[in-house]
Amino acid sequence: MVFSPSRCLFTSTLILGIAISISSNSWFAAWMGLELNLLSFIPLIFMKHNQYSSEAALKYFLIQALGSTVLLISAVMIMMKMQMFSAPLSAALLLKAGSAPFHFWFPPTLEGMMWPQALVLMTVQKITPMFLLSYYIVDQALLISIAAMMSAVVGALGGLNQTLLRKLLGYSSINHMAWMMAALLMSESTWLLYFMVYSAMSFSVVMLFHFSQTFHFNHLMNHTPPSPVIKLVMFMSLLSLGGLPPFTGFIPKWVVIQQLCWSSNFLLLVILLGSSLFTLFYYLRITLMSLVLSSSKTKWSIKSALKNKLIIMTLFINLVGLLIPSTAYSFMM
C-alpha cells in the first residue's frame, strides 16, 4: 500500500476517531468517533482498477452503518432510562467487531481487501468496539459469554474448508475474538495483553503473505523454494498465531486459561480449548504448504534489505514471549 498524502490523512483521521471514541464520556461522542473511523477506513479500502475492493468497501459501509444506527438508537433509549436497550447496544458493538453471531459480513469483506487493509480490519478496527463493550461487561456478561462461545465454534469450523488465505485468517480472527471476549470478562488488562500479542502475531503473518503476494493455498506451492530461513519464519509465525507453546502467542492464552480456571468458568474454557484444536489444524495445514513457499510475484529477492529486517522482526516477535513469561504474567496481576 503506497502512502500518498490522502492515505496519510485518512489514516490519521482513522486513529483520531478511535481516540475520540475511547476517551469520550457520552455515547453520542463515542458514536461520532465511530463514524469518523468508518468514513476514514472506507477510502483506505478502495483501490482503483480493483472491483473487489469496491465491493468490500460497500459491504463494510452498509454493515457498519447498520451497527451505528442500532447503537445510536439504543444509546438514546438508555439515556431515557430504558435500560433494556443495553442488549441491542452490545449487539451493535459485536456486529461492528465482527463477532459471532454477527460475523456473516467479516470473511467476505476481508476477502476483497489487500493484505494491509485486511490487517487493519483484523486488529485496529476491533479496538473501539471492544473498549465500548467493556462499559457494559457487568450487565451483559451472559450475552458476551454466549457470543464468545459462538465465535469460538464459528471461527474453528468455518476455517476448515477454506482455501483462500484472507478468508481463513478472517475465521481465525473470529476465533481470536472469542478469546478476547473471554479475557474481557476477566479484566481489561487481560484483554489488552491478548490484543497486543494477537496484533503482533497477525502483523508478522500478514506481512509475510503481503511481500510474497500470497492469497491462495496454491500460491504456497511452487517448484522454486526460497530461503530456508523464510520457511522457518513462516512456520513459527503461523504456529505462534495458533497459540502453540512455546511461542509468544501461547502466553496470553495461558493467562486467559488460568483466569478462567480461577473463576470456575469451565464451560467457556472447554469450548475455547476445543476450538483451538480445530484452528491449529488449519494453521498446520498452511504451515506444511509454507515449507515450499514461493510465488511468481515474490519480492524477497528484489528487496533483500527489507527481507532481512522483516525476518529479524518476525523472529523477535515470535520468540520474545519465551524470554518474559513472568513479566507478562505480572502485568496481568
Any overview of this molecule?
73% of the residues lie in helices and 0% in strands. The chain has helices at residues 5-23, 27-45, 51-79, 86-97, 106-111, 115-122, 127-133, 141-158, 165-186, 188-211, 228-241, 250-262, 266-290, 304-323, 325-332. Residues 294-302 and 326-333 have low confidence and may be disordered. α3 packs antiparallel against α4 (86-97). The chain has 15 helices and no strands. The chain has one domain. With 333 residues, it is an all-alpha fold. It is found in: Mitochondrion inner membrane. Residues 24-279 form the NADH:quinone oxidoreductase/Mrp antiporter transmembrane domain.
Summed up:
It catalyses: a ubiquinone + NADH + 5 H(+)(in) = a ubiquinol + NAD(+) + 4 H(+)(out). This protein is mainly α and 333 residues long. 73% of the residues lie in helices and 0% in strands.
Task: Write the SSE topology.
Blueprint: H1 5-23, H2 27-45, H3 51-79, H4 86-97, H5 106-111, H6 115-122, H7 127-133, H8 141-158, H9 165-186, H10 188-211, H11 228-241, H12 250-262, H13 266-290, H14 304-323, H15 325-332
Subcellular location: Mitochondrion inner membrane
Enzyme class: translocase
Domain NADH:quinone oxidoreductase/Mrp antiporter transmembrane: 24-279
Rg is: 20 Å
Average pLDDT number = 83
> In what range is the share of β-strand residues?
under 5%
Structural class: mainly alpha
- Note the run of SSEs as H and E: HHHHHHHHHHHHHHH
In DSSP terms (H or I, runs of 4 or more residues), the helix count works out at 15
Task: Specify the helix fraction band.
Answer: over 70%
Uncertain segments = 294-302, 326-333
Q: How would you characterize the largest beta sheet?
A: none
Q: How many strand elements?
A: 0
Q: Cα distance, first to last residue?
A: 39 Å
Globally, the shape reads globular
Q: How many separate structural domains?
A: 1
